[in-house]
Design a protein that fits this description.
The complex is a heterodimer of chains A (573) and B (548). Chain A has 573 residues and is of the alpha+beta class. Helices cover 20% and strands 35% of the residues of chain A. In chain B, the strands form five sheets. In chain B, strands 8, 17, 18, 19, 20, 21, 22 and 25 form an eight-stranded mixed sheet that branches. In chain B, strands 1, 2, 3, 4, 5, 6 and 7 form a seven-stranded mixed sheet that branches. Chain B has a six-stranded mixed sheet with strand order 13-12-9-16-24-23, covered by helices on one side. In chain B, helix 3 crosses helix 4 and helix 5 packs parallel to helix 6.
């Protein structure tokens, strides 16, 4: 019952998961609505009319169909590991029965709201309609069973703290964005490039695992609902990711990941820039491998913009997700703090999925409509330190009865309030160039020998469930000791930031003056969704760090084959 | 002059005696970039992989499986998935200890990862290097754990952990896809479009899977194996509900290792149409009676499923968990040298068999996945169990491998059958078998007997006919299950076999074949299935547009 809500924010992408299917409908005339949309609509209306005669009738029905072209190319050590292109057409059928006040999706029964399956590609109306028909009556049965359970449980259990309805009332949306031509990827050329990027690690024998992966997702979403919504929305994204690990002599594995994201392959950074970033990764890892271990401490700390961004995503962002304010299992850190100060007054936080770029960087959490067909909206969650709002899906919470366009999910799962682009801004800042000096000044003021500078961070996770401590952990990679005297900064490894959210957030003293972006994939109850977080560098009066628990496997016994200078043994040469 | 000639002869002699060990490595195998990388890394690990104060490996094995797979899926005449995937999967096994007692814990040893598709020596070796290092460290930990575990157990029948085998060298051709994909994809579309003639069917789907699998295997004992195999699989199926809600399913399949044996368009469409017709007939077919006890005739397709389940699983020399005294994990663990089938039946397994009745068999191979040559084995001799199929993991009374260690690309080898052949000393024609069935019915004063054509999952009948004793008429029935269709029935109730032995291929978990004739049971229980019945769809399927 109380599986802890664990939300992870990691830039890792697995390339092995390939659910595959043919290219869907065609590049028809971009001006006319896609034929798929009209099949969906007519089948939805038929289902609505037919199921409406039953007891209980559905009061809400929606179809979402994702036509997705997906390309993955992966390479390691200069050689190709995989290169595949697949197309899928997947349908999510969402059905609510009962009443908005109490329906089949109530509380733990939320997953009864959805059924999904693959649809035939192409434009054959009969084949598509038949597949939707089957999914729909199966989903109706699931919802019907769940509603009976929900009613029994509600009758048996004590009244809940928050007796908000289960589903919000929203205005229908009608928006058909023409689908652009499918992304044109020169696979041969990209295979060669990935071989080259991954091959750069060959001259770094200390690197154990490494890979370069290109993911191209070209999605055409179609959405129709019984409320009269009708949407066609394209989404194209290209992600290049390079990862590498080294292992210190004590067995600690150290990971660096670089992610590049753009709307088209051409918009990715230049070959030279990517090469430079990969070389920098290798150099960082080499330095990290032999860096001394950090000891547990509570010291002044400076978080770079990217590090601060991940920190805010984990520590604050997840706790502002609407549905976490109701439900008996949730910790509800912020539920009763609306209109109260939760941050220093010079900080404001918005989540803005309508923002496509920030400081020239494309944002991963951009979208036009959320996964419940509600338009994306900028939400000022914290203004001048005061909590104002939550990130809302169509699950109402006390005093927040409407969605604000943050209902998000991975296909096949019921949407919940999630982050898109979390943007932290500050009115109390110093130029970035001066902030390190401020850290040093704070260290001296507190009479500490050193402070910590968190240059980069690989991700983090947070626990929001009531059963678990209200804690968070971010996983820094590049951390420097900045000494009170003018010794040069020293790279350290094995540091984890720990602590409880409210306390940590109020120790921010001053920020830098430019926002840096962290693009990643965020995992939570409604699955993996792309998100961005942006923040300026931040100086904390203190931050608690602990030693990272790690494996104790020794580094490889033999040198890698390419770096083995010993004479060949045995018969082969 | 004389001395020089002598010198040359001597050199030649030396070369000939050294041939087995050196020749393959330095010439043929070295020409193959994958084998070369594997051998180079193997030799490096063999000679230098060593942790302080820990035993060196006594056995290292590298396996790389290269898969080229085309698959497609269709529903209602439209394509739902289509994909071509190329991948290489490597598997590294490192064992420490010795053949008598080593680091292997159950199925735990070995490490799997993806390997480069490019024949890039350093990249291939890099992947092998990391996997070897980890596998070795894991093996040393397992070895310590296992020794601790063994101290707490009393072992009734001490067995070696790993069988010694002669090193096999076999360099055969790798595999490539030899069937064009587009025509069969189109055939799938055409076949599943036949749903239009059967508006009551809820699903009509088809799948296509063409595979070329190449295998590279080297061991520190000197085995070097490279070969390839193909499988071409075409499936179509449909489902519906009877008026009372009972779920009904049927499917047709073609599975072969030979692209030339894939069905012609017309033949497949005919089979599909017949299958869909039979589904319609099943919808209106009468329900099986609540209870029946009497003769049942299994036609070859159904008999193949019975044999693969009840014989195939129980002749495997799979060793039970550490400390458990049983010989194998199967039901015939204690039946060694006992009668398990009627005396008129003999069962063999023959990996060398490549075709039967003009049809390619999927189960054949020269060398198993542990580098051991596959041997033909008589398992049941005139009803008596005389042997098991063994891998390199010895079982009681069978210390050696007979070349039946088979593995999925990413998994450990286990004993599995290749091609099971059931033969009978006396056989009857299909017509004679039916007469015999009717004869028994009359003797037992039964109004009818059963003939089962095909089985579904868990040996449940799919195509089942009532045969009326009075006139031999066959009548399709639905909703039946067998009671007590088990190894006891196989031993005691089998009465006769047909002269109609047919080969049946299966691809999962590993490629296998069964060659079985019709089998007549004198007495089996057939009951009405005790399934809850689904509701019929709440509303009708969408009407078909006339455009198509």
């Amino acid at each position: 019952m109380s599986s802890p809500s664990r939300a992870a924010f990691l830039p890792l992408v697995a390339f092995a998961v390939l659910a595959l299917a043919p290219t869907g409908a065609s590049g028809a005339d971009p001006a006319s609505p896609p034929p798929l949309l009209s099949v969906m609509e007519s089948e939805l209306h038929r289902a609505q009319a037919e199921l409406g005669k039953l007891d209980p009738p559905p009061y809400y029905l929606s179809y979402t169909v994702y036509d997705q072209d997906f390309t993955v190319i992966a390479a390691s050590q200069g050689a190709l590991l995989a290169s595949t292109q697949v197309a899928t057409r997947r349908a999510d059928v969402v059905l609510h029965t009962g009443s908005t006040a109490l329906d089949n999706t109530h509380d733990e029964s939320r997953s009864s709201g959805i059924s999904s399956g693959f649809l035939p590609g192409g434009d054959d109306r009969d084949a598509i309609a038949r597949s939707l028909w089957r999914l729909t009556y199966e989903q109706y049965r699931k919802a019907e069973r769940a509603l009976a359970n929900v009613k029994t449980q509600t009758a048996v259990r004590a009244k809940e703290d928050d007796d908000s309805p289960d589903f919000s009332q929203e205005a229908p949306q009608n928006s058909v964005t023409p689908f652009p031509a499918r992304l044109d990827l020169n696979r041969t050329e990209w295979e060669a490039r990935l071989r080259r990027y991954s091959g750069l690690f060959r001259s770094h024998p200390e690197v154990e695992e490494s890979a370069a992966t290109l993911l191209v997702e070209d999605t055409r979403s179609h959405f129709v609902s019984s409320e009269g919504s009708r949407l066609a929305t394209p989404e194209q994204v290209v992600r290049l990711q390079v990862m590498a690990t080294v292992r210190a002599d004590d067995g600690m594995e150290l990971l660096r990941v670089e992610t590049f994201q753009a709307a088209t392959p051409e918009k990715l950074p230049s070959d030279a820039e990517i090469t430079a970033r990969v070389e920098k990764m290798a150099a960082d890892l080499k330095a990290l491998r032999t860096a001394p271990l950090a000891e547990p401490a509570t010291v002044p700390a400076l978080l770079s913009g990217r590090a601060a961004a991940v920190f805010f995503h984990e520590v604050l962002g997840h706790r502002l997700e609407g549905h976490r304010q109701r439900g008996d299992d949730e910790g509800q850190t912020f539920t009763r703090k609306v209109n109260q100060a939760v941050l220093p007054d010079f900080l404001s936080v918005a989540d803005d999925p309508t923002l496509r770029q920030l400081n020239g960087v494309e944002l991963a959490g951009w979208y036009r409509f959320d996964d419940e067909g509600i338009p994306a909206r900028r939400v000022e969650v914290i203004q001048k330190g005061i909590l104002k709002n939550f990130l809302m899906s169509r699950i109402p919470v006390k005093n927040f009865s409407q969605s604000n366009g943050h209902g998000r999910s991975q296909g096949g799962l019921m949407p919940i309030g999630r982050q898109g682009n979390l943007i932290v801004s500050s009115t109390h800042s110093v130029p970035d160039a001066q902030i390190r000096q401020q850290l040093q000044a704070e260290v001296r003021k507190q009479g500490k020998p050193y402070g910590l500078y968190f240059e980069d961070i690989q991700g983090g996770f947070t626990l929001t469930s009531r059963a678990a401590p209200q804690a968070f952990q971010v996983l820094p990679v590049m951390v420097w000791k900045v000494y009170a005297d003018n010794r040069p900064d020293e790279l350290v490894r094995g540091v984890d930031i720990v602590g409880t959210p409210l306390a940590a957030l109020n120790r921010i003293l001053v920020t830098g003056d430019t926002q840096a972006v962290f693009n990643g994939i965020c995992g939570a109850e409604s699955g993996q969704v792309p998100v961005a977080a942006a923040a300026p560098a931040m100086l904390f009066s203190e931050i608690e760090v602990q030693k990272r628990a790690h494996e104790h496997m020794r580094p490889p016994i033999l040198p890698p084959p390419g770096a083995d200078k010993a004479p060949a043994n045995g018969v082969s040469r | 002059m004389k001395t020089r000639l002598l010198g040359a002869l001597l050199l030649l002699l030396v070369a000939v005696t050294q041939l087995p060990a050196v020749a393959a490595e330095n010439t043929e195998a070295q020409k193959d970039p994958v084998l070369r990388a594997m051998l180079e890394e193997l030799h490096r690990s063999q000679s230098r992989l060593k942790l302080d104060n820990v035993a060196t490996p006594y056995y290292i094995e590298y396996r790389i499986v290269e898969l080229d797979e085309y698959s497609a899926e269709a529903a209602f005449g439209s394509l739902r998935r289509e994909n071509r995937i190329q991948s290489r999967i490597l598997r590294v096994v490192v064992r420490v200890g010795d053949y008598k007692q080593d680091s292997s814990i159950g199925r735990g040893e070995g490490l799997t990862n993806v390997a480069p598709l490019d024949n890039d020596n350093l990249a291939l070796r890099h992947a092998l290097w990391l996997a070897t290092d980890r596998a070795y460290k894991q093996a040393t930990e397992n070895f310590t754990q296992k020794q601790a575990q063994l101290k707490q157990l009393t072992i009734e029948h001490p067995l070696d952990d790993f069988a010694r085998v002669p090193a096999v060298e076999r360099l055969a051709a790798t595999a490539r896809l030899e069937a064009p994909t587009a025509p069969y994809r189109d055939l799938l579309l055409e076949a599943t479009a036949l749903y239009r003639r059967h508006p009551k069917l809820e699903s009509v789907e088809g799948r296509l899977r063409f595979q070329a699998v190449s295998r590279y295997l080297v061991t520190s004992e000197g085995a070097i194996v490279r070969d390839g195999r193909n499988s071409y699989q075409l499936n179509c199926g449909g489902s519906t509900q009877a008026e009372d809600g009972m779920r009904l399913e049927r499917g047709i399949q073609e599975l072969t290792s030979n692209a030339k044996e894939l069905p012609a368009r017309e033949a497949w469409l005919k089979r599909m149409a017949d299958m869909l017709d039979s589904l319609e007939q099943m919808r209106i077919a009468p329900l099986a009676d609540e209870e029946y006890r009497g003769p049942v005739l299994f036609r070859p397709s159904a008999a193949a499923d019975v044999v693969s389940t009840l014989v195939g699983r129980n002749v495997l020399g799979q060793r039970p968990e550490l400390g458990k005294p049983a010989r194998t994990t199967g039901e015939w663990s204690a039946e060694y040298k006992s009668r398990v089938l009627p005396p008129f039946l003999t069962v063999k397994d023959d990996p060398a068999l490549n075709s039967f009745g003009g049809h390619a068999l999927l189960g054949g191979y020269a060398v198993d996945d542990e580098g051991v040559a596959g041997q033909p084995i008589t398992l049941v001799d005139q009803g008596r169990l005389v042997s098991y199929l063994t891998s390199r993991q010895p079982i009681r009374d069978f210390p050696d491998s007979n070349g039946h260690g088979r593995a999925l690309p990413f998994s450990w080898p286990e004993a599995a059958y290749s091609t099971l052949v059931v033969s009978a000393t006396e056989t009857l024609s299909p017509a004679e078998l039916k007469n015999k069935l009717i004869e028994i019915c009359r003797e037992k004063e039964l109004a009818y007997g059963y003939i089962v054509e095909t089985l579904g999952v868990r040996l449940r009948p799919r195509l089942l006919y009532r045969v009326w004793a009075k006139d031999g008429r066959e009548e399709l029935v639905r909703g039946a299950v067998f009671g007590e269709l088990d190894t006891r029935a196989l031993r005691s109730d089998l009465l006769a076999a047909g002269n109609d032995a047919t080969a049946d291929n299966s691809a999962d978990p590993v490629p296998q074949s069964v060659i079985v004739p019709s089998l007549l049971f004198e007495e089996l229980q057939v009951k009405r299935a005790n399934d809850s019945k689904d509701k019929l769809p709440e509303y009708p399927a969408p009407a078909l547009s006339s455009a198509n």
